[in-house]
Amino acid sequence: MSMTVGGGPGKTKCDMNVTPLIDVLLVLLIIFMVIAPITPKGLNALVPQPAPPGQQASAADTRTVVVQINKNGAIMINQEPIEESRLGARLEDIFKTRAERVVFVEGDPDLLYQSVAHVIDIAHGAGIDKVGLMTEKVKSGQ
């Protein structure tokens, strides 16, 4: 800070020197502008892509594993009903010979997210690397 004295005897005038403060603020502004694009914006999402209209599903599409949770809490793996207690073991059996460990979870819209999160937790416990969520838009091909 600096102080200027003027105006004769008995009159002092105090002015704050804000130039260093502005310099520091400009440097901080530039630093944050450079860092901002580097920070991640969200989570990577995996979404199964539907086959184009008029084409058959390929072999890779039939290897897609979808865990469905119905409104009443029933769980199915690729339309095969399974109990929640056996879900982890069944997922381990399915993925023990596969190199890519990806599973998609589809929950009923009226279902609480707690049930979906529990299935995701079971999948991670079974050694699944990536878990994707299916939505209505994805199912309709949008």
Q: Helix coverage percent of residues?
A: 25-40%
- Terminal CA distance reads 62 Å
Largest sheet: 5 strands, mixed
Count of distinct structural domains: 2
Shape: elongated
Encode the helix/strand succession as letters.
Answer: HHEEEHEHEH
Estimated radius of gyration: 29 Å
Total number of helical segments?
5
Number of strands: 5
Q: What is the CATH third-level topology name of the largest domain?
A: Nucleotidyltransferase, domain 5
Strand arrangement, largest sheet? Answer: 3-2-1-4-5
CATH architecture of the largest domain: 2-Layer Sandwich
Characterise this structure.
The protein is of the alpha/beta class and 142 residues long. It folds into two domains: 1-39, no CATH class; 59-140, Nucleotidyltransferase, domain 5, CATH 3.30.420.270. Helices cover 34% and strands 15% of the residues. The protein contains five helices and five strands. It has helices at 19-35, 59-62, 87-95, 113-125, 136-140; strands spanning 65-69, 75-77, 80-82, 102-107, 130-133. A five-stranded mixed sheet has the order 3-2-1-4-5, with helices on one face. A hairpin with a 5-residue loop joins strand 1 and strand 2. It is elongated, with a radius of gyration of 29 Å. The N and C termini lie far apart (62 Å).
Question: Summed up, what is this model?
Answer:
The protein is α/β, with parallel strands linked by helices and 142 residues long. The chain has helices at 19-35, 59-62, 87-95, 113-125, 136-140; strands at 65-69, 75-77, 80-82, 102-107, 130-133.
